Amino acid sequence: MTNNIINQKLLNLIDFSSKIVNTRYENTADYKDGSSFLYSQSMLSEYDEDFEYVQKKIKSTSFELIFKNPLKSSLPPISDSKLLNLFLEIGKKGDKTPKLADSITINKHNLDVLKTIFGDNDHKLNIDESLSFNDPIIAEKLIYDYDNYLSKYWKPWSQKTEQRNLYLKFYKSLVNLNRDLDSNLSDDKRVNDLSLGMGMLSFTQAGQTFQYPIFTSSLDFAFNKDNNNDVIFTSRGMLDWRIELSRFLNTDSSVYKKIIKTLDNENLLDFSISSWFSNKNSEKLQKILSYNLNLKSLKVEDDWYIFSRSKNYSIISEDLHKFRDQLVKNKSLMLPSPLISLLSEPDEISGLNINNQKLSNTVFHLPSNNEQNRIITTLNENDAVVVKGPPGTGKTHTIANLICHFLNQGKKVLVTSAKDSSLSVIKSMLPQNLRNLIVSPFKDGDGSTVNKTIENLLLKLQTFNLDEVKKEVLDLESSINTVSKKIENIDKDLKRWALINSDQFSIDGHNVYPYEAALDASEYITKYKFEILDELGINEKFAPQFNNKQIQFFKNFIIKNPDFKKFIFSEVPNPKRFPDSHLLVIAHEQIQKFNAMSTELKKFEIPWPQEISANFLLEASKLVNKIKTTRKNWSHLFVTKLPWSESVVSKIRMNSYNELFDELDQLGAELEEQSEKRSSFISRPVSVPEPALLDNKFFEIVQNLSKGKKPSFFLSSDLKSWLSLCRISGFTPDDDSEWNYVKEFISMQRKRRELVTRWNSLAVEIGFHSVYSVDGGGQLSAESQYELYKSIKLFGNDQQEILSLASELFPSWSKLTHISHKPSVLDELMYALDYHLSHSSISKSLNWLESFKSELSECTPLTDHMISFINTKLGDTSTDTKTVINEWTLLKNEIEKINTKKEEIQECKEILNLINNSGAKNFTSNLQEFNVNEIDNILPDNFLQIWRIKRILSFLKLVDSFEDIQNLIRNRHELENKLFTLNAEISEKNVTVFLSKNMTSRVRSSLQSYVNSINKLDSLVDDKNISRIRHDAKTASEIAFQALPCWIMSHQRVSETLPAIFGHFDVVIVDEASQSDISSLPVILRGQKIVIVGDDKQVSPSSLGIDESRILKLSHQYLQDQVEIFKPYFMPDRSLYDLASVVFSKTSIYLKEHFRSVPPVINFSRKYFYNNELKPLRVLNHNSIYKEPLVDVYVNNGIRSGDKNIGECEFIINSIKKIIDDEKFKHSTIGVVSLLNISQSDFIWSQILEHIGPEKILQHQIIASDASGFQGRQKDIVFISMVTSSGKMSLSASPQKIEQQFNVALSRARDKVFLVRSFKFDDLEREDLLRRSLIDHFSNYNRDNFSKDKNQSASMSSFKSEFSQFLKDRGYYVLIDYEIGNFKVDFVVQNPLNSAQLVIECDGADREFSNLWSVRMSRHRLLERMGWNIFRFFASSYYLNKDNIKSSVLQKLDELRIYPTNDKKIIGPVISDKIEYKSNIKDSKHKLTIVA
Fold it and tell me: What does the alpha-carbon distance between residue 835 and residue 840 come to, in Å, rounded to a whole number?
């Protein structure tokens, strides 16, 4: 479809919508038509200037009037005269002047006061006697005090009280205004807007009265609940003035245009309130209008007015025209996708996706469900999402989550509805840091005006550091990922535990369910004392390798041979393995000798090893050889006197001068090289004059001669002389080879002199001696010093190696550090090593004895005596050889005796080994300790069965997840809350980041310009520049407003406030869309994508008041080219939700979880209107303060008179009074809904104002309205007045409207509904299924839903029966298999004295559980979102450890303050109640009988 066709369709649709809007708009010329409230500046003069209840703040751009709550009155003043207070008579209300009593009776309370006044002697003061005013002394004192009291205290207080009482009536009108503005949509002519008016114009023409302010500006109104319910009137944004002359003049007329031009020339179109009066604008206006209208009777009052009026649809019409103008001017305008879908045939847009890429994640700051996640995913792929939200399904919660997510994505969001009351709660559900950036309704005094939001935004941007915030975002993303991963891991752990505790496990080839195995095992636990302490398993490793026959053999042997029991548990030694007496005597003598030597050596301080092992002996031998070699190699150093200090020598040994010694080693290598060269000249010596050796010119000549070049003739005499004196072996060099030999000699000599210089330089640093020549003689020559240095260095290395080896052998020897410099210590070390090595000579004997003792240790207890004999007698110097032989022989004979039962003992050993190998090591070991008489208890005849049970118990204990489950669930809940907090934080950061990145300099400048202009306007003292500055502010606002990320406001305010820009918002969310009609088109035009939230089963728009023929004519004129199947849904009696459900039928999402009402309240709507698809998730606490949630009230003699039923009203008022007077209902909210029309609710409301009063109305948030006005609200208690009575049963609306009204009315209450009717069930026609079903629901709910045996059904599992009985025996009120939504929970325990409740779930108590785990955990999350406390455990854990789980449950109940009760009257599932109320009202004029 071409753009031109689409554009033309849209133009026609805009025109149609505009015409429908204008048809609804009645151009009233008298402000009193449709107005229920009027207040003016002159009314303020009724109060003193210091009247405490009124505050006024008026600026050029704003108007604010605050009316304080007057409901708490002050008591009459007390006199400072004690005597006067005794005689003073003040009425209860304080509305009459106090009088003096003629006399008072003296009593014990006033006697002490009188004594302080008169003393003890002035009067006789006796109790019960009278004290007369006529007493002269008393009269004189009283008259003076009385006159002073009246003038000083009473009269000022009385005047203020009189003003307060007058003001109280006005405050009551404010309560009424709040109801009018906030609750009604069923009649568009009714009050739902508030305005400030200036220049009240009044005149009469042709018998018609015109009375209306010439200038108006919209006002916001709120009861500030956070501030004592003070009432605030405040201007909406900048104080813009709207000219209202069109109410009696055609805007196209020349008179109208002339008046406007004159007003503009006189600067009367733009003004401040203060300058209006100072410039006498009223007089100027009166002259201009009188002249142009030729009306002498015309008056313009010099006052401002606050007045209520019906909805001003012209604002929406003007907004539509702005969009139309854009469309006409720009044919190629890019339209948002939802609009294209709205104007195109369904098959033309099939499969159209704006963005195929799904969101990577959702950022919700509140708990969410699958439907909320689906909204995000669906909108990501489509133009729009239609969300069906039946009553109480969390629409506001969902919208709050969507806002947070979209803002986190950097999107601009508009949330709108037909009325502000639907939107007022949304902002409070958003993260705190986001609220300052959101423009929201001024409801309850907590809304954010545009000006305030822009100031907040500028402040944030001024203090904003992009790099820092980006880093914070990255940190938050990391934290979110970490927390999400932890939650994911917890879910995996929970699932793993679930599978372990529910899936079958195999034992000995049989499959068993854990809970069944635990149940069986629990029975054995109570019957038998388990002696098997080992933790056995269920795998093959722990299968019994023994049989009953073997167990019986073992028992019989023990019983018959009790003395031999101890030999079963040890080895019986072989006598042939015993050494003979001769070997034992040799070992005895060797050990004696060595022990004596050891005793002697311990007198000396020699090193001892930690242990003498084979490795020690090997290393000790190496050390001995090393010490001997070192002494041999370096013994000369011990007798040589060293030429250097001890410090220098020590440093050489320790290699302390690392760098200097490296240099010395390099120099020494060169010394050795030159020494070798010098030796080559010994056999063929060379002589050269000493001075010539260092002469460079001489050396150059010798070099030339070595190359065959002859010297110059011009040589100096020295050079000639030196050349002539050169000799080789006494002969003059003859040829170039001999001169080359001379050259090598000179080079060698020169090099040696260089080495001398380097040596002397290094020797100073190290501490060596300087030399004159390299080969100087003696020990101090460079060569000899270097050779000595090398010897000491090598000796030091050997000493370090000795020290290292000694440290390993004797790490704790105190003399280790002296080895390198004290030869005596080295001698001690050698002595110790020799001793320890000598010990090895007897090691064979010792090793043999140790091996033999090791064999004995594994044998019978008798061998303990043998081991003791070896340890104490062998080697003992006091034991002779004969004794050793005798004792040893006796021990051997005893061992031979034991061997006679060796085969039976061995059989028992093998049986024990089988038990041990089956996994019962501890059990086998403990068998040695048992008493023979207890053998039947320890090894009963069914030992194999007990073994199996023990294996199962060990497995169940291993997989017992009770503590783990509790910790995992608690940790997950904490992590989920942390995740919500992190999501809220990152959303706020990302909003700021996106704003900063996407905000152009033009937008930023416009924001600042707007704020500057507003501030400038507020500081003006006259109107000289107000028009220009206001124009600047408006110009800046058109751009500045685009920067604000989120707006929450009604459709009318959208049109009134926001610039008309197609697709201005990334996402538009329409709440309560079933109450919006085609007049909401401007909000759709502003959205790139839209989310429509509503319900076709709730009240939809009405075309009441619009001529049907007019609608058909407009439809024929403007809708002919629209999509045929969409066309009917553009009609004014169809809702935006209806339209969207058809256009975007593929993207519909159904919210089914119901959070608001207890099941009995919502179940009628659930069944009758929603085909049982709703899931009520609240649980009815049968013992709550609301008792029966359904109350069926029959008003006997209740009569419908017109559209009213005064009898029903009387019952409702009396019932409300009874409720509000009951302390336990002090926090309950109350609502009244009329099921017929607004007349009945208006009448009830008037009686509430009269008999209940503002204080209680505000405390209990009482409201009375029809179903339309109540939509979007909820109250704790709701009264439904059905109005109709016997013989007057007709309902005027269509069946669909009636069902919608009933559905809304019946779904408003959270806890209790009074259905108030004046007819009987038999008065209804059979065809009247709706009302018949409703009466039946209220009358028979107990019968249908709570049979006596419901909670004690025969099919109840043994576990549930046992566990519920356990709780009941302790006095708890328990509901079993309780239904929540479309599922059941195992138990709900309720507190009969408060609303505390606990869900208890036992998992894995059936064979299908493993398939249900994900379902049960989804339920768990859902219950957590609703604020439920949940305690869960596995059945296997319960049977394994009942006491622990029961104790934990009781502890949890105690934590939640859920206490047992023995009062059976409190407990009982009574859901509905019946009341018959006798009304004495005969007709509509009869007054209500109100019970005091």
Answer: 9
Q: For residue 573, give Cα distances in angstroms to 11, 852, 863, 952.
A: 114, 11, 8, 40
Sign of CA dihedral 908, 911, 912, 913: positive
Residue from 1326, 1327, 1280 nearest 1303 by CA = 1280
Instruction: Check if the beta carbon of residue 1102 is closer than 8 Å to that of residue 396.
Output: no
Query: Are 1436 and 1404 within 8 A, CB to CB?
Result: yes
Distance CA 788, CA 803 (A): 22
Residue 1327 has pLDDT above 70, yes or no: yes
Mean pLDDT estimate for the chain = 83
Which residues have a Cβ under 8 Å from the Cβ of 853 and sit 6 or more positions away? 867, 870, 871
Residue 962 has pLDDT above 50, yes or no: yes
By DSSP bridging, strand 1175-1176 and strand 1153-1154 are: parallel
Q: Residue 1304 burial by CB count (10 A; 0-12/13-18/19+): exposed, middle or buried? A: buried
> CA end-to-end span of the chain, whole Å?
72
Question: For 1434, left (φ over 0), alpha (ψ -120 to 50), or beta?
Answer: beta
Residue 246 has pLDDT above 80, yes or no: yes
Residues whose CB is less than 8 angstroms from the CB of residue 261 and which lie 6 or more positions away in sequence, other chains included: none
Six token digits for residue 186: 């069923």
What was the pLDDT predicted at 191? 56
The answer to whether 1397 and 1391 have CB atoms below 8 angstroms apart is: yes
Q: What is the mean pLDDT of residues 598-603?
A: 65
More confident residue, 348 or 900: 900
User: CB under 8 Å to 124, separation ≥6 — which residues?
Assistant: none
| DSSP secondary structure code for residue 1073 in this structure | G
pLDDT of residue 401: 92
Q: Which of 1314, 1339, 1288, 1284 is nearest to 1213 (CA)?
A: 1314
- The helix/strand count (H/E) of the chain reads as 56, 37
3-state SS assignment for residue 1237: coil
- 268-304: buried (b, 16+ CB within 10 Å) or exposed (e) per residue? bebbbbebbeebebbebbbebbbebbeeeebebbbbb
- The percent of residues above 90 in pLDDT, for the chain, comes to 22
Dihedrals φ, ψ of 1087, to 5°? -110, 130
Q: Please state the φ and ψ torsions of residue 235, each to the nearest 5 degrees.
A: -70, 150
1491: confidence class by pLDDT, cuts 50, 70, 90: low
Burial 1100-1114, CB ≥16 within 10 A → b, else e: bbbbeebeeeebeeb
Burial of 1090 (0-12, 13-18, 19+ CB in 10 A): buried
Structure tokens at 1316: 């108030």
Residue 1349, phi then psi, degrees to nearest 5: -100, 10
